[in-house]
Structure formats: C-alpha cells, structure tokens
Predict the structure.
Amino acid sequence: QSIPFGQVMTYSEIAQMIDEAGKARAVANALKHNPYALVIPCHRVVNQNGKSTGYFGNNQQMLTLRQKLLAFEIQQ
C-alpha cells in the first residue's frame, strides 16, 4: 500500500523495505494470496527486469489486467 500511484517496486525492494532482504520470493508468494488486488495494489510490483510477472500462475488475462491498470495510473 506504500507504493505511490503510477509507480512500481520490485519484489526485492519490498523485501528490503520490510527488513527481509533476500526474501523476494516470499513477497511474491504473499502477493499471490492477496484477495484485495485493487485495495492492496499488487499490480505495482514488478520483477528485477521491470516487468509484470505471473504470480497468479502465469495467467495471461491477469498479466494483461495488471499492465492495463498500471498504464492507466501512469496516464493520470
């Protein structure tokens, strides 16, 4: 919830932010179980290469939705 509107952070950056450096996979797993994707904006979390990843099981529909949400925020 601390990621500003229209910006992104990596899984690693979030792990460091919560004093759990090296636990990026645990951050991704926690986001995978996030039932409130719009309230807790997991679409703002990207991999080290700056790309949305398929923590929802590589579901292309979810990846497309994440990209659209972020693009919408950036345009605002």
Strands lie at 9-10, 45-46. The two ends are 18 Å apart (CA to CA). The chain has a mean pLDDT of 81. The CA atoms of residues 6 and 71 lie 8 Å apart.
